[in-house]
Write a structure and sequence with these properties.
Helix content is about 45%, strand content about 15%. A hairpin with a 2-residue loop joins β1 and β2. α2 packs across α3, α4 packs antiparallel against α5 and α5 packs across α7.
Length: about 280
């Protein structure tokens, strides 16, 4: 389980299996265990590459006063990691905020990204999403990375049906503990990166939005979403799919915001079928 010194930081990663590398980019404040249920189902058809983004898990936790965290920085980190590892091209899969990292990687490093898969992602925010992320910042400022933030995060990302099962509750609690391991300063910086990414700033031209930028993506693209995702509804995934020429859009029946957690077998099957079609 090596750590690579790339792009001015240190990134932890783990490559398993054989075949074309598939980089798995996790969601907000989460480490590689985000894919603990789905990665074993993908490993037979490709080389899976688990990563901890800069600032998370076993990767270096650079001070936000010295670097500007954001999808673009993480994308550059992962592109540098791929080149460091000797991979001439990679497939990139990102979920939630990881989906933003994947989009940034496809835009900024098109020569490296063979295909892109975005799961429960977004290229812009609406006011409800902006309020959700801003409220997390307020919670952290008042009471830190405690149970209150963890419960708010769980309610935002898991379906009622999933939480109502013993298995679902256990999975949610594990995800909550993962998030609570973040420092308040770093997690706040991650939230700021989302607010900057997803909502145009005053005076910013339309063509500078990420929904506009991803129109330049030319690689084969699969956009997946759970049809029961009430945090980032399916319409945001449709926006991504409609912006990227030739993108495939699919919904996971009964899936919530993190289909790799709630519907790992169904989600992995769609990803595997998509990747098989590239060979």
């Amino acid at each position: 389980m090596p750590t690579a010194a790339v792009n001015g930081t240190e990134i932890w990663y783990e490559a398993q299996g054989s075949g074309h590398p598939l980089m798995l980019l996790p969601g907000l404040g989460m480490d590689h265990s985000y894919y603990r249920l789905g990665e074993p189902l993908l490993r037979g058809g490709c080389m899976t590459v688990l990563v901890d983004p800069r600032g998370v898990g076993r990767s270096r936790k650079d001070d936000p006063s010295g670097v500007t965290y954001g999808a673009e920085l993480w994308a550059d980190d992962f592109a540098a990691l791929a080149r460091h590892s000797g991979w001439s091209s990679v497939d990139v899969l990102g979920s939630s905020l990881g989906g933003s990292m994947a989009q940034a990687m496809a835009v900024r490093h098109p020569e490296l990204v063979r295909s892109m898969i975005v799961v429960g992602g977004f290229s812009e925010l609406d006011r409800a999403m902006e309020l959700n992320f801003s409220l997390r910042k307020k919670i952290i400022a008042k009471i830190g990375m405690g149970e209150e933030l963890a419960d708010f995060m769980g309610l935002s990302t898991m379906t009622r049906e999933f939480m109502d099962t013993d298995e679902g509750l256990a999975v949610m609690r594990a995800n909550q503990e993962n998030v609570r391991r973040n420092s308040p300063v770093l997690y706040t910086a991650f939230l700021d990166s989302i607010l900057h990414w997803g909502r145009r700033l005053p005076g910013q031209a339309d063509e500078e939005s990420w929904t506009a930028k991803i129109r330049a993506v030319a690689c084969p693209t699969l956009v997946l979403t759970g049809d029961n995702d009430y945090f980032i509804p399916a319409k945001f995934s449709r926006t991504i799919a409609e912006a990227i020429p030739g993108a495939t859009y699919l919904e996971i029946p009964g899936g919530g915001h993190i289909p790799f957690v709630e519907k790992p077998a169904e989600t992995a099957r769609e990803v595997a079928d998509f990747l098989a079609g590239l060979d």
